[in-house]
């Protein structure tokens, strides 16, 4: 099950950008546009982490943080605050209210992703996996290594990202366009057939043993990682 992140941000373009990039990182992302909506969404479904803007309509981010910390069911939900306020006093106020971390806008997506992983690793260690296993394949994101049935598999950087993405969504079929968007990025032009080339290289690397091919080709649809075939 993917970690669920609630992004509370009233600037629509930034909210969409955060959702897009966090979903690429393998998170299940929900959006709230104001403080009232955020509090209702937390009541309906408790998230694993909240990315919370300070300046919000209706109920401020600071007040949302305070209320979440008052309720027993949401008291321990990790909260990362985003704000245009860079003063030390504001940072201290945010942390004193109950935020676990604090980032000043404009936000670097790589830094936000690193902060999320760090907070989850500290507060929800089961959700911040540095190592992921699917069947007999183990991917180590820190050491950038892959093993299958105990043997090390040597992958190029693109094949590594491709395998990592497929392992985050086992059994799900992705079109070539979806894989291009997730692995190469939406702002990079790459032909769809490039995916076939890298899938071929990934297959060749993974199938050096007598084990079954874990990558399933779905005609006219795309590819999926199946470890139980």
Salient structural properties:
229 residues; Rossmann fold; Arc Repressor Mutant, subunit A; four-stranded antiparallel sheet; 8 helices; elongated
Task: Describe it.
There is one protein chain. With 229 residues, this protein is of the alpha/beta class. It has helices at 12-24, 35-44, 61-70, 88-97, 109-123, 157-168, 176-184, 193-206, and strands at 4-8, 28-32, 49-53, 79-83, 101-104, 131-134, 137-140, 145-148, 151-153, 215-218, 222-225. It has 2 domains: 4-127, Rossmann fold (3-Layer(aba) Sandwich), CATH 3.40.50.2300; 131-225, Orthogonal Bundle (Arc Repressor Mutant, subunit A). 41% of the residues lie in helices and 21% in strands. The protein has a 5-stranded parallel sheet, with helices on both faces. Strand 10 (215-218) and strand 11 form a beta hairpin. Helix 2 packs parallel to helix 3 (61-70) and helix 6 packs across helix 8. The longest helix is centred in the middle third of the chain and has 15 residues, at 109-123. The radius of gyration is 20 Å and the shape is elongated. The model has no long low-confidence stretch (mean pLDDT 85).
């Amino acid at each position: 099950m993917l970690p669920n992140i609630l992004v509370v941000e009233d600037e629509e373009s930034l909210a969409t950008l955060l959702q897009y990039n966090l979903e690429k990182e393998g998170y299940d992302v929900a959006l709230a546009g104001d403080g009232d909506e955020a509090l209702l969404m937390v009541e309906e479904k408790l998230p694993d982490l909240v990315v919370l803007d300070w300046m919000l309509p209706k109920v401020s981010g600071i007040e949302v943080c305070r209320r979440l910390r008052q309720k027993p069911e949401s008291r321990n939900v990790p909260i990362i605050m985003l704000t245009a306020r860079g003063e030390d006093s504001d940072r201290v106020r945010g942390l004193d209210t109950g935020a676990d971390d604090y980032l000043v806008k404009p936000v670097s997506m790589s830094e936000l992703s690193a902060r999320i992983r760090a907070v989850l690793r500290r507060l929800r260690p089961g959700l911040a996996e540095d190592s992921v296993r699917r069947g007999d394949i183990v991917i180590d994101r820190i050491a950038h290594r892959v093993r299958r049935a105990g043997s090390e598999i040597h992958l190029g950087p693109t094949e590594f990202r491709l395998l990592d993405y497929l392992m985050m969504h086992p059994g799900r079929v992705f079109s070539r366009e979806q894989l291009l968007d997730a692995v190469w990025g939406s702002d990079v032009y790459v032909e769809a057939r490039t995916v076939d080339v890298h899938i071929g290289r990934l297959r060749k690397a993974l199938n050096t043993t007598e084990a079954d091919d874990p990558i399933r080709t779905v005609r006219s649809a795309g590819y999926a990682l199946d470890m139980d075939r």
